[in-house]
Amino acid sequence: MKAIIDCNNFYCSCERLFRPALQDQPVVVLSNNDGCIISRSDEAKALGVEMAGPYFKAKPLIEKHGVAAFSSNYNLYGDLSWRVMETLRMLLPPHAVEVYSVDECFVDLSHIRRQDLAAFSMHLRETVEQWTGIKVSIGVATTKVLSKVANRLSKKNKEVTNCVLVLDTPRKTEQALQRTPVEDVWGVGYQYSVKLRAMNINTAYDLSTRDMAWATKHLGGVTGARLVRELKGIESIQMMDELVNKKMIATTRMFGSPVRELKDIKEAIATYTSRAAEKLRRQHGAANTISVFVVPREQSNSTHFRHGPTVGSHIILPFATSCTHELIKPALALVERLYDATKVYKKAGVMLSGIVPDSSIQGSLFAAPAANKSRMLMSMIDNVNFAMRDDVLKFASSGTTRNWKMRQELRSPRYTTRWEELYEIS
């Protein structure tokens, strides 16, 4: 049996953890630069606050009902996510936990007897909440897709399910599929849901009755056939080891305010490159290609603005590297190539690709071997920044004032990752 464990309204739950007075109050969390709503508590949903809706449009409703609004606090969310996953790793056998996203993971429960699944799942839920303060919902079934169906239903009627639903019989599974609209099936996107509705396939159960030949023809080949097999209770999506080594690393941000000057864009790109290089070194990798893109703002009329087309370019490096200074130099050269003084820019990003293990970098016959010195320098910078936080050591090209920095006017303290922001009890 497989289960998916999903943190309830995760970002909102993290904000409530250190503010008990908000426990039963409506809460929302905003995206980068406080632009859109990306997380809502159940109470905020009941008020009609829309998911992914612009904050400025929802602000009158939020202020009218006293909804607590927070800027994204990814330092806090990342740390609490790690605590939830580590708790589950302590309660389950090695390699039984597959992290799927910041607030979800699949777990293998094949070692638990079927008659004990409900009690064990409840034990997992209660332990995670007691140890971390984060409430979770758990769906259990014979396959990953069915466990997602169970998890969705466990959250829709929390008073009845107590946030745990186990589909351990064919009858329970059939009833769950009949209660699940086809567009809510994991793996069925918007376009496919429209197509399936037009074919009178309205529920997950309707889809599960189709054969493999039909699924291969109408649902994208092997992927569609695998989805239908999973709905039939036949395991086709295996548990996977956690993805540690990425094939591509990107750092992108919206600017806190529109940027016009080349100097500011260079500072942002240098900062993003430093962050991407740090991630690259964390997985002991080196990249041989660096890409940079910028997104201008276009004026559609006198008062409204929209994003212009993304402008980007890349450079293939003479040798793979993970050294920040060796990546910043070509990145800034790309910025100069892309920059247009007549444009105002809203966003930029850096992408590292062609990643190989840093132990297999092929040296140059025409250059002195300085890799060891550079590696020691990068290791020292990473260690100091990890210990002191907030990029205490950074390259001068990253700037000091950073007027383009992301806007987070409503951010809560980073309670668990900054000494100066630890939670205080008075």
How would you describe what is shown here?
The chain is an alpha+beta fold and 426 residues long. The protein has 3 domains: 155 residues, Reverse transcriptase/Diguanylate cyclase domain (Alpha-Beta Plaits), CATH 3.30.70.270; 64 residues, 5' to 3' exonuclease, C-terminal subdomain (DNA polymerase, domain 1), CATH 1.10.150.20; 150 residues, Dna Ligase, domain 1 (2-Layer Sandwich). The protein is 39% helix and 21% strand. It has 15 helices and 13 strands. It has a 5-stranded mixed β-sheet. Strands 9, 10, 11, 12 and 13 form a 5-stranded antiparallel β-sheet that branches. Helix 11 packs across helix 12.
Summarize the structure.
The protein is 39% helix and 21% strand.
Number of strands: 13
CATH architectural designation of the largest domain: 2-Layer Sandwich
State the CATH class of the largest domain: Alpha Beta
Give the tally of structural domains. Answer: 3
State the share of residues found in helices, binned by percent: 25-40%
Mean pLDDT rating: 88
Shape field: globular
What is the strand arrangement across the widest sheet? 5-6-1-7-8
Relative strand content: 15-25%
CATH superfamily of the largest domain: Reverse transcriptase/Diguanylate cyclase domain
- How many helical stretches? 15
Biggest sheet details: 5 strands, mixed
Which value, in Å, is the CA radius of gyration?
Answer: 24 Å
Main structural class: alpha+beta
Order of helices and strands: EHEEHHEHEEHEHHEHHHHHEHEEEHEH
CATH level 3 topology of the largest domain: Alpha-Beta Plaits
The low-confidence parts are 300-305
- Distance, first to last CA: 47 Å
